From TrEMBL, chain A:
Pfam families: SpoVAB. Keywords: Membrane, Transmembrane, Transmembrane helix. This is Stage V sporulation protein AB. The chain crosses the membrane at residues 6-33, 45-66, 72-95, 115-137. InterPro entries: SpoVAB.
From TrEMBL, chain B:
Gene3D superfamilies: eubacterium ventriosum atcc domain. The lineage of its organism: Bacteria, Bacillati, Bacillota, Bacilli, Bacillales. Residues 194-214 are annotated as: Disordered. It comes from Alteribacillus bidgolensis. Residues 201-214 have a biased composition (Polar residues). This is Stage V sporulation protein AA.
Length: 140, 214
């Protein structure tokens, strides 16, 4: 029994280690944190941001694996949703940037001066696509 | 008379088709003022219709042209050995139709991509769970969470690219501008290495230049 428990602990720990380091590597490659630091000029708070990412990941994983329920008013989901959306938006932006989508596209269609127009097309597409998804699409 | 002149080629020059290129257009010169003035107007190359989009001028061709007129001048070259000149074909404005087409394409694509992403990662289930996590109540469609989420999605992208409808949040270049810069640099580097120097066509690689001294 004890051996089985130890083995389960070992598997859980190693699995978590792999997933956790993968998550950190992913966030690092996309350079979201440096970008936020650059925007807000808070180089000194990097350690705090690391802790934020780690605690967020740990709480998220605990919350998905176990049924934890808070008793906060529903209005509180507004900032949570906004933050979640902004993070995904930054992920998406970083991904298109890593893949070099905009420079190539802008050059191909000869719109290097209007590149912001192309970015806004994607931004509005994401917002409206997402709204459409939640408000209408999921009801089908 | 021995004069020492230093020369550095510009990078990222753009010209119009049919334009004549003089030394002052492609290089910075440093030396005695009187000896620089005639050098500035040494004719290097005329952009013709056949030059398409880029012309590569290399330093030997430029030196050859200079020495033809001023054989006694001694030039020290600083920096790159060739310069890539971009020929801007008469700026035909992008037709509004094209713009609308590309815009609509990207718009629809982005919308579809985000929906695919949401389905892929079961975002709805996560949102429902998140809603329960905060409020303790079940909700099939937690719009109070999802609408801010959708708005935040756009905000995050704008934040990353450092553009709020053309207005800057701060003055540092955005990743997009850096990426555009790198992309342009890569093209120039590629052209400088692969494209033969168009201005020196009579100068065959294995033959001696007709102008060179030996």
């Amino acid at each position: 029994m004890a051996v089985e428990a130890l083995f389960a602990i070992f598997i859980g720990l190693s699995g978590g280690l792999a997933v956790g380091s993968g998550l950190v590597a992913f966030i690092t490659v996309l350079g979201i944190i440096p970008r936020l630091v650059q925007l807000t000029k808070t180089q000194k708070a990097i350690q705090a941001y690391e802790i934020a990412v780690i605690t967020g990941a740990v709480i998220g994983s605990i919350a998905t694996l176990h049924d934890i329920k808070g008793t906060f008013p529903a209005v509180l989901t507004i900032p949570v949703g906004l933050a979640a959306g902004m993070f995904v938006g930054m992920l998406a932006a970083a991904l298109t940037e890593v893949l070099n989508v905009f420079p190539i596209l802008a050059r191909r269609v000869g719109m290097e001066k209007n590149i912001i127009v192309l970015v806004m097309a994607i931004v509005f597409g994401k917002i409206l696509g997402s709204l459409f998804h939640w408000i209408f699409f999921v009801k089908f | 008379m021995h004069q020492q002149i230093y020369m550095q080629l510009y990078t990222g020059i753009t010209v119009q088709p049919g334009q004549d290129l003089y030394l002052k257009d492609v290089a910075r010169l440093e030396g005695e003022a009187e000896s620089l003035r005639p050098l500035m107007s040494v004719h290097l190359y005329s952009i013709s219709r056949t030059d398409k989009t880029h012309v590569v001028l290399d330093i030997l061709t430029i030196l050859q042209k200079i020495h033809k007129q001023f054989p006694e001048i001694d030039i020290t070259v600083v920096g790159p050995e060739q310069t890539v000149i971009e020929v801007t074909i008469e700026k035909k404005l992008i037709s509004p139709l094209m713009l609308v087409l590309v815009w609509f394409l990207l718009f629809t694509g982005a919308a579809l991509a985000i929906m695919n992403f949401h389905e892929d990662v079961s975002m709805l289930a996560v949102h429902q769970k998140l809603y329960t996590l905060v409020t303790g109540k079940q909700s099939e469609q937690p719009l109070l969470l999802q609408v801010p989420y959708s708005i935040g999605l756009g905000l995050g992208m704008i934040l990353f690219f450092n553009h709020v409808f053309k207005k800057r949040i701060n003055e540092e270049p955005s990743p997009l501008e850096i990426e555009m810069f790198h992309y342009k640099k890569d093209i120039e580097e590629y052209l400088a290495d692969t494209e033969s120097d168009r201005s020196s066509k009579p100068w065959q690689s294995k033959l001696y230049s007709p102008y060179s001294s030996d």
